[in-house]
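Quick one, T. Sequence first:
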Amino acid sequence: MATYMPEPYRIKMVEPLRVTTKEERDTAIRRSHFNLFGLKSDDVYIDMLTDSGTGAMSDRQWAAIMLGDESYAGSRSYYKLMDTCGDLFGWSYFQPVHQGRAAEKVLFPNLLKPGQISISNMHFDTTAGHVMLCGARPVNCVVAEALDPSSLYPFKGNTDNARLKELIDQYGRDKVGMIVITVTCNSAGGQPVSLANMKETAAIARQAGIPLVIDAARFAENAFFIKEREEGQADRTIREIVLDMFAEADAFTFSAKKDGIVNMGGLVAVRDDSELMAGVRRLVVPNEGFLSYGGLAGRDMEALAIGLVEGLDESFLRSYTGQTCYLVDRLVEEGIPCQQPAGGHAVFVDARQLLPQILYDLFPAQSLCIELYREAGIRGCDVGSFMLDPDPETGEQPQAAMEFARFCIPRRTYTQAHLDYVVASLAKVKERASSLGGYRIVRAEKILRHFTARLEPWSHTL
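Structure tokens:
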């Protein structure tokens, strides 16, 4: 029977959850125009929409909040965070920002010009959005194994480096503004990137003279998987592996709301105090705030300095990734197809296989998430074609490589009983999967539309 390591913490405070009726949930999802992002949190029982900023902070983090120095300039909380970052990442130049997409906003315009491309193992939604806002185009280059959910390949987040070389030759070095390694690779199912693959990608980037950027939102989980799965890494510490990972990059962006285990925060960093860092700082001041707070309160920086260290604890990482593995194993036992092996922060259900009657442009993963919410009050997220904005030139709907319904597990938040309830609820939805229809978009923005788009049922009625 599936199991995982007991949580290396105990519950000290609880937040009551509201249990809704089926009728209340039907009303709520209609009111949100069938967009899960539009639901009120009070209408959600188990919230698996994202792991971003939704985890539980520790008693040490909450205590540190009282020590926050809210000085506008030169805050001691800022210097504490900078010292922690230097110790963990081995770099010298960091800039706090209010979250990960803010890091992309101030870094990418310094690397990308209109008409260029950004190549990544797989860009996540906000990353692709900020590439497009620069007038550039995102191109994904993940290994083929990532596209087969049943494959047990241990590093499905790896960059296809043979194809990377082909893309550089095809477009020309001057047209490739940057290469991005997303760790773990969210769009591929929270899958890790091996250290060997990162080193190979970095060597290709250096040879071509192209900046290499790490999207580091879940760097700690990636380091844990390297230790667990990669030959020759088992006897090394998580911190040693992290230092090796970041030794390969020229810059990184970081949403601290994931592996930093805080509710708000982010970082952008470059390897040296070059013109690139100067360009970042020029954009921070008008967009985020003065350099020594970058959109964060002193108390936020205090909590982040502690969360970065706690997030690297091996016992915590073993338990947290164990929850995901447990949930995947239980779902597979129920005949529900998932991306395997389990990734770090979420379960990715293969909606294309579960709902083959729904075409990609009617969004099978969105349909599955809506039906699970109606069944049990569980909120997930489409990581498939619905998340892809229309082609800016043709207006056509792109087809995602995979139609995943993502169910995130917030850090230090839910228990095994919650996970078992998710399994039982998805099993009920699976029983009527063949009767489900799709959804079409009736109103949407041009970029990052999935956050605010309005939809309506297509070919079926609720």
